[in-house]
């Protein structure tokens, strides 16, 4: 297995990618020496793991013995299956009751033979246990398939051999080949590329399909061949196992030096090596210590409301059972005391304690046990298992529904759990994300503002859709919707004070670029008054990013592997404007400028530092050196963040840019502000030294130190302009929302967009309608600066909520509709304990609610408030990792399998490909599943109550003697065989209306009242008992009328004795 040749010196374009120099320590500083650990967290609580590289034998005994790499996701094993499965079955109240009666059937007090009580219980419990065993067996086989994968491991003396994953130990050195999965969490030592980088696909971890770049420490780059590991030794001291996928704190002690480790050197289990021939790595975390297994916690347990109500009904029936058993035992005691002495043919003098006339109270107590067993058929023994069968069948129908098949992605709807099928028909409130859920999350560069001048003449889809909605709803103007598209001069006022022109649009032939303005295209920007600022704007688009250029070998065209759709759209726009980003190396970015005085020119910009974008910073910065040796800082980010960091002399274009940003937001576009700053050599050198010190620190406060240092340089910026990209609505979203609203569902949209953008998105997707009265809740920018300001802002918000509630109460028009819009800062106050109920009371009076600028945590808090405050079924739908908290918090979580990976889908109860499929999922399948389950449960209780009451009536007729009117075998087969198929058929196939009628009328759920069924059972059982005829005939026929709600099954016949 030894590799004879040196490392393959791959010099492909892939190996020349910039490896995020803000995290790479230069070789002169990388080896900090043992003193680097002074004051670090390594070795302290939470950072106590020690790994001896290439010496795994030390980890097979205490105190360094760590778990093996064997994993198990099963619920049971050979030893625990029977006790745990039996415990799970008898946690159910009904099963526990029947277990007690089965035990009592072995005593003389039982009116039936033991087999008639034990056999049905054994059948039902056994069937459920077999189902559990099959599901767990499938999990076991999947685990075995993973555990038996093979990987090349260093055996010693520079030789590698294959070993099963489950046999890996901490400290082993492994070699992973291209397109293989990593068997454990590894420290990357080297790769087939000379600069020690590799490309990783993390779809199994976070659902993201874009490749992640990893790179090794420079000190381990020479470990390029198998035989070089013969004498390799090192010690890793790092954090203890934890579920954080994106952080890692530790250091490597190698050759008497200490080197800081960060997440860019860590390869996580179940991610895949891509576009790299091989890598060498050392095992840090194995098995259940690995980060992916640390994250494999079970989703929150969710039970449907109908199941909870069913448990309550079981308790009520048990109370009825005890009541009639008491009546029967009292009647038996009275008859024993008064009548038995006169019944000489029963030889009362030889009576035992079960029917002793001298001790009627004791006999009555024994008869109470007999009655509890005799009337036990009031409680249906096969109810739970039948419901499980029906729900699995219903989930299969959802999965196979071709009307929810997305041809573009090839994905179908998936019921990831069958426990909540009927909950789909009881949804009261929908809480939805916007980007990627209502929209496509595919960005098109549409407009921009440069040096205070707005460019781009095309109208956005949101402008056109909102104009169409308003035009169609304007009763005081004779405007046809078609006229909006025919007349280029039409102007529609979408938001007060802002007017948009709506004209004909043409389909863009360039993906990601829908810009149209001759002032900037084809090099015409050189004729603009502020051409130098325009040049800087385009360079920021082409340089300020982390994307990877890829060449299509067939066409030679460039495509970009970007971290976000926005970033990809910026690069496409820069290319179309004549600034093509075409190459990246470890230290430089190359762009090709087409429109220069000397013709097309290639320029190189050396990258010094890169400060990444994240949801907290809301900005990204790159520091580079141009061809004139000037150090320039380029920054792009949210307008509020950038404007706060502008220099006094950098605000020249701020008023005009702010106005343009508001217009773009009102058009439903996503905006970013662009800025720059020229740095002096001395200033940069001083800052870079502090930055290097912060990034090489080890401890939980490392990120805080990096953020603090970044703030020192990201200031005194000069505003250049702003971008506006369009995220188009998904097909059918307005129609879907409109029909869901007609069906009586309340819809909330939780978005990170500014208020103006959210309002116009609301109009475009029919969430807001013409004539709807808006209530806006907001605070000023300085509300959270000082304690007094926060108090004033809170009082102002309470006043706004009070005024809004008063406006709703004073509204005299019964058909008036209100919409509530609240921004993120106001929402922070509104979710506090002393105000959240006021906010919720106002929100539930409104037909639509839009929450703007919300964080992922606020999404989850709003969902919890609605769920707990209303006490009704809530549904949350989203497509990204920031929606996971909201999805798990709601009663029902729906994930969109979209552009942002599969994290939302993995956390959801149901998954769909497009928002428009939600209509069919709720209105059709929700209606059917709820109707079927509700009728099935009522059907179950109907037949069992009717059957049980006939036994009670016969008891009264037979002197409460404890004798059954039916044969033992009929009693045995009644629930599990004779009456199971009609009930299951009803639960699976019942269809009161077709799907077309459901979709056409927005069909709501009809209530199914158990008490009506209970009354019907009482009447039916009395009719049966009073039917004239010879009661001693063998197998007379009994016909029970079925519930009025059951369709297609008008009657069912029972054979009785």
From TrEMBL:
The chain crosses the membrane at residues 93-109, 115-134, 312-334, 365-387, 940-963, 969-989. Its cofactor is Mg(2+). One of its GO terms (molecular function) is ATP binding. ATP binds at residues 433-435, 567, 613, 636, 670, 751-753, 853, 859, 882-883. It is an enzyme of class 7 (translocase). It catalyses: ATP + H2O + phospholipidSide 1 = ADP + phosphate + phospholipidSide 2. CDD domains: P-type_ATPase_APLT_Dnf-like (cd02073). Residues 51-118 form the P-type ATPase N-terminal domain. Keywords: ATP-binding, Magnesium, Membrane, Metal-binding, Nucleotide-binding, Translocase, Transmembrane, Transmembrane helix. Its EC number is 7.6.2.1. GO terms for cellular component: membrane. It holds the Pfam family Cation_ATPase. Belongs to the cation transport ATPase (P-type) (TC 3.A.3) family. Type IV subfamily. This is Phospholipid-transporting ATPase. The gene is LOC100838453.
